[in-house]
Design brief:
single chain, Immunoglobulin-like, binds beta-D-glucopyranose
């Protein structure tokens, strides 16, 4: 252990020396070149605004990195050009490997519903192995933006609304991508994005401004970034939005004071796509040169696709406006990573056709994707126990726009892997076909398209439903209805899909509804009237198999919602860890002089942390090791969970705390721990949660993170609303805080 630590230090020293030696030989233009990143054309992930002669610029040492180039052959070709430059500094190849490379896993929001950190880490591991074998050094993931707004299209890319869950997932994803260490051939650099608060875009409209107190920023939005950093994230990406009027790309406080200062981040920051130039549209910079100045001085090290650094930085240095030391610092950070990846030893080490061939055809990857997909499915309703289906069912009608398409299961942010056809993707139809025996007859009708206004296909759907014993209806959002620049003002089931549900209900047949989507949708009528609903999100290339596994009980669903599902859009933002207000409603129908809407129930449609199983779990014997603790002490809470049903199943046992009285009002409950356990029928397990001072602390107005003495509620539940057991304890001492001094924003008497 000690030896490993020593060799790590020695390696860093060695790399630092090499970086310095290289830097000393570089011209200012070559240094600026390292900070310049262009998009290639294997895929397009943003508006192309420049048209450089990339080949020539690489040979001239004017490019440090390319994104959107993939495959061992293509990456090798570009790397060969870099080897023709004077300094022979290898290129970095970055790509949005968000939820898988060739093998796609569920979208990140769906994976978050698994609450299974090992599964999430595995998904990132497989993505790293596959992409690293295709010449990729760097993924622009994980996106760790907390968001409380399902209208925001990029909600699909994160872990949902909760800071605690989001931080745990951020950590797992970084570990998965980066593996044992950078430089291993199965590891890619992670990139924690988008720094910061991008998920709080006003109105859920993508790229929109963010207005937020520092306290909220620190308490809710920054912790997942810190978790990514603690896991060793090699890079960060800044964000398109402004926060309180300052674009993140030009935000010194975020990038220099917090990230590189207080948090001591040693990796590098890449701008988001043309976000440097976009500071002109923001009204923050007068022109491209001004934008380049703002970005580099604020700590944005690499310029993605703006060409602002390439065109202006050398001149800004020559004019004495930007100290060369600032450029050097940015270049150092990037070169260090290139050394750590081993690219100076062999620039082609990740571009290996043989390894690519092997990794992209590894059957273990599909197996992992199937498992993770099954774990991500959330059973929302199963009132009549229609599920699981019997494999002996004679006739099943499988209806809906999502039944036959293949690629659509990938969802948004799937890599369009070159030279690979889509036959390996298991459609929902194929999954069902493989699952049922010869004696089951499968009938198909599309019913309608995702966004159709025409009901022309309804008659056929009704006809096949009428011939079936069971109907499975697969509806939802098309893969491009949620994602970047895919905000929606209404988040209903698009087109006439809910009409189709209503028509099929009239057949009187048992119907299982599958909802495929990149966000929480509003489907009030369906939720109220249909007894069996399965939320399948977008599950990736094994969607068909995973769905069939769940429908027939080969996998007992265990997912829990990582976001609150609203009743309608007017409730947004709605999240479980809200404050109580001075006039909280007593129940969901209480509307008189309380904080409520007069035209809607006060509760969400489905709460955070909710999800059913084919079995049931009893919670009993909540025991606290003590009723009062000092700050230096810990307290344990134990609880016994029993599987009271007939089949084995997994339960996510959730721990929530509430600080009852504090100088800054605390949420009605906050997730502070969870454990996912598997139990055989009749089996019991006792779980222990340890509570320490850190879990009781919060950010004060002056940003001190401290606990305050007083009473705490401790709740253990199966969801944020289904609290099964409750107790309480007292924290005996504050951390040198009293109400007056913590509330520094208030004028002192
Ligand atoms: C997105 C980033 C992404 C980048 C490169 C931008 O539009 O905001 O998340 O990594 O494009 O594709």
């Amino acid at each position: 252990m000690l030896l490993a630590a020593f060799s790590g230090v020695a390696q860093h020293k060695d790399i630092d020396q090499k970086v310095e030696a290289l830097l000393a030989k570089m011209t200012l233009e070559e240094k600026v070149g390292q900070l310049n990143q262009y998009s290639g054309d294997n895929t397009v992930t943003g508006p192309l605004t420049i048209n450089p002669n990339k080949e020539q610029e690489i040979k001239d040492g004017k490019i440090g990195s390319l994104l959107n180039i993939m495959g061992s052959r293509y990456t090798r070709q570009y790397q060969e050009l870099a080897m023709k430059s004077r300094m022979k500094i290898p290129l970095l190849f970055g790509l949005d490997v968000i939820h898988g490379y060739k093998t796609t896993f569920p979208i990140p929001l769906a994976e978050a519903a698994s609450w299974d950190l090992a599964a999430i880490e595995l998904s990132a591991r497989v993505a790293a192995r596959e992409s690293a074998s295709s010449g990729i050094h760097w993924t622009f993931a994980p996106m760790v933006d907390i968001s409380r707004d399902p209208r925001w299209g990029r909600i699909m890319e994160g872990a949902g609304e909760d800071t605690y869950l989001g931080s745990a997932i951020a950590y797992a994803r970084v570990k998965g991508f980066q593996g044992k260490k950078l430089g291993d051939l199965d590891a890619v650099m992670a990139c924690a994005k988008h720094f910061a608060a991008y998920g709080a875009a006003i109105g859920g409209r993508d790229y929109n401004s963010v207005e937020m107190s520092d306290r909220t920023l620190w308490e809710t939005y920054l912790p997942p970034f810190k978790a990514a950093l603690d896991a060793g994230a090699a890079t960060f990406m800044n964000s398109f939005n402004d926060i309180n009027g300052v674009p993140s790309t030009g935000n010194r406080h975020l990038q220099r004071d917090i990230l590189k200062g207080q948090w001591k981040f040693t990796g590098f920051v890449v701008s988001d796509w043309t976000s440097i130039n976009e500071m002109i549209a923001h009204g923050f910079s007068a022109d491209k040169k001004d934008a380049a100045f703002a970005a580099i001085t604020a700590g944005s090290d690499m310029d993605m696709e703006s060409s602002a650094y390439r065109e202006n930085l050398a001149q800004l240095v020559a004019e004495g406006k930007v100290p060369e030391a600032i450029v050097d610092d940015a270049v150092r950070r990037i070169l260090r990573k290139k050394f750590e990846l081993g690219l100076f030893d062999n620039p082609y080490r990740f571009s290996d056709e043989k390894r690519q061939q092997k990794e992209l055809n590894n059957p273990e990857n599909a197996k992992a994707a199937r498992e993770v997909a099954a774990k991500s499915i959330v059973l929302l309703k199963n009132e009549k126990n229609i599920l699981p289906l019997s494999k002996g069912t004679k006739t099943i009608a499988f209806i809906g726009p999502m039944v036959k398409p293949k690629r659509a299961n990938h969802g948004f942010w799937a890599v369009d892997v070159k030279d690979i056809d889509s036959t390996y993707i298991v459609s929902q139809w194929e999954g069902l076909e493989r699952k049922v025996g010869k004696n089951t007859k499968l009938l198909y009708a599309r019913g309608c398209g995702f966004n159709d206004t025409s009901k022309a296909g309804f008659a056929e759907a009704i006809a096949v439903a009428n011939q079936a014993d069971v109907v499975i209806l697969s509806i939802g959002e098309k893969h491009d209805m949620s994602g970047e620049a895919k905000s929606r003002s209404t988040i209903n089931l698009p087109g006439v899909q809910e009409e189709l549900v209503k028509e099929l209900q009239k057949t009187g047949k048992p119907i299982v509804i599958l909802i495929n989507a990149g966000r929480p949708l509003v489907f009030d009528w369906t939720a109220d009237n249909m007894p069996t609903i399965v939320y399948t999100w977008w599950l990736g290339s094994e969607a068909g198999n995973a769905i069939a596994d769940v429908l027939f009980g080969d996998y007992n669903p265990s997912g829990k919602l990582p976001m609150t599902f609203p009743r309608n859009e007017g409730q947004i933002p709605i999240y479980y860890n809200h404050l109580n207000t001075g006039r909280p409603a007593k129940n969901e129908d209480d509307h008189i002089y309380v904080s409520a809407y007069i035209d809607l129930k006060n509760t969400p449609k489905f709460p955070f942390g909710f999800g059913l199983s084919y079995t049931t779990f009893a919670y009993a014997d909540l025991k606290l090791s003590k009723t009062a603790l000092k700050r230096s002490e810990t307290l344990t809470a134990s609880v016994t969970i029993t599987n009271t049903g007939k089949v084995a199943g997994e339960e996510v046992v959730q721990l929530y705390l509430r600080d009852k009285v504090a100088s800054i009002v605390r949420p009605v409950k906050e997730l502070k721990g969870f454990q996912k356990i598997k139990l055989a029928p009749g089996e019991s397990k006792t779980l222990t949660f340890t509570i320490d001072d850190n879990m009781l602390a919060f950010y004060h107005a002056n940003l001190d993170f401290k606990s305050e003495a007083g009473q705490f509620d401790l709740m253990i539940g199966a969801s944020s609303e289904d609290i099964r057991l409750k107790s309480g304890f007292e924290l005996l001492e504050s951390q040198g805080v009293n109400k007056d001094e913590s509330n520094l924003s208030m004028p002192k008497p």
